[in-house]
Description:
single chain; alpha/beta; about 35% helix; disordered C terminus
Amino acid sequence: xxxxxxxxxxIVETKDITKIYKRYKKKDGLKGSxxxxxxxxxxxxxxVRQMNLTIEEGEFIGxxxxxxxxxxxxxxxxxxxxxxxxxxxxxxxxxxxxxKNAYKKQYAVVMGQKSxxxxxxxxxxxxxxxxxxxxxxxxxxxxxxxxxxxxxxxEELMNVQVRTLSLGERMKMELxxxxxxxxxxxxxxxxxxxxxxxxxxxIRKFLREVxxxxxxxxxxxxxxxxxIKALCDRSVVINHGLLIYDGKTKDLFDKxxxxxxxxxxxxxxxxxxxLKKDGVDVILEGEYKKIYNVQKxxxxxxxxxxxxxxxxxxxxxxxxxxxxxxRIYREGSAVYE
Length: 337
């Protein structure tokens, strides 16, 4: 039975944080290049604008936004890689950009497109190297290694060279390395990118267990909305550097998932079923198979009409998540009420 670690304690607090980058504007041609040697013109770009965010201990939060929305900049400020231009940040009682060792030992970062593993070493040797980096006591190291190798089902891979692992196996090892020193907060950036459906499902299962059993606070950035929907009770949506939604993931999708797809299969020809009406889009209307996109509030009525013709099989699917996210981004600031 999973323990609940909700202590209602804010471990991340930001107040009006803003990050502005200055970018050099080069004029066209050779003359522009020469002029730039003597006098340069810059333009300012606000990557994050006056963002207020709190994260409680034990939460699992999805960070959503299109490319260039400011997600990576926010993560970099929370981990201390860059400092905000203005505003206040407090993570676990520290100002991240001070980069104190006491703070660095309390968080971890995993990026799906960047590896922190040593490919020429075995998994065991890699883990021992990180043990020394984080100054983990031997007893704690052995206990955590045994726990995570069982959790991720990789006991038989401990003496295997990292370079020989599959993509899914390497991601498991990335997570073990990140969690080895018992971080209080884990920042995840696209952890399932490039993985097949089975591996992605396994990673989601393991992350949920780490969050619930170990109480690890997790901030997940992903373009795969299946990850967000399956794991995150709360979602934060940012666009153009602004926070435009902060609330329950279910409420977000309930509001912006506007239709459902109904597929009906018949073992006898059905020619007379015609559902062309407002709120119903016909995708396929053959004699033996019919597919409709239906507005959510019309689902019951359309199902009742189809059932009169005794379908052999019928299925109802949620609207494709990518379309929902596009709608959220398109409506932008109207989302945040």
